[in-house]
Amino acid sequence: MNIMLFHSTYGLRPAVREAADRLRGAGHEVWTPDLFDGRTFETVEEGMAFKDEIGKDELLKRAVLAAAPYSERGLVYAGFSLGASIAQTLALGDDKARGLLLLHGTSDIAPNASVDELPVQLHVAEPDPFETDDWLSAWYLQMGRAGADVEIYRYAGAGHLYTDPELPDWDEEAAEATWRVALGFLETL
After folding, report:
1. With DSSP H G I counted as helix, E B as strand and the rest as coil, what are the percentages for the chain, rounded to 5?
2. Which Gene3D superfamilies match (predicted)?
């Protein structure tokens, strides 16, 4: 599988590179574009401030430019938190997308979004301050109406970005369970 993996608001940290290496070890080709031009952050607040400084449109432009050379191959879009929201936006706009793997995040869905049974897998903490139960219920219904085939996995007691061992949210058990399920999902595409 060809996977475009987008980083979180913390930037292109070692955990993203380690995730890419894990995916490569399972036989996938993986790209990890740096949407923050080398900047990384220690807190979500710093990362969000930088994201806001760049602006949503510019971030999406950078993501589209990173994915464009490979989209003809049929990409699986994937991402962590902010990167998941970017991956979702790109996957819903790419008729050649093979799948969507969302880790710790989702995004708004355009009312006219339409896909042909796009396989989607979401992994989130339960509870998650950024992905509330009401939001996830509405998101699930909207993705279904758009034509996506969605699976949601929740991890009780895990922190928001629980797959990053360098962050306070780290939860080794939830992270390993996520990767087991996610790698199985990728094998089905």
Report:
1. 45, 20, 35
2. alpha/beta hydrolase
Model pLDDT for residues 31-76, shown as the tens digit of each residue = 999 999 999 999 999 999 999 999 999 999 999 999 999 999 999 9
How many Å apart are CA 153 and CA 22, to the nearest integer? 20
Measuring CA to CA, which residue among 150, 154, 117, 116 is closest to residue 132? 154
pTM for the complete prediction? 0.97
Report CA Rg, the chain.
Answer: 15
The b/e string for 65-97 (b: 16+ C-beta within 10 A; e otherwise) is ebbeeebeeebbbbbbbbbbbbbbbbbbebeeb
- Whole-angstrom CA distances from 49 to 40, 59, 72, 89, 140 are 12, 13, 34, 21, 28
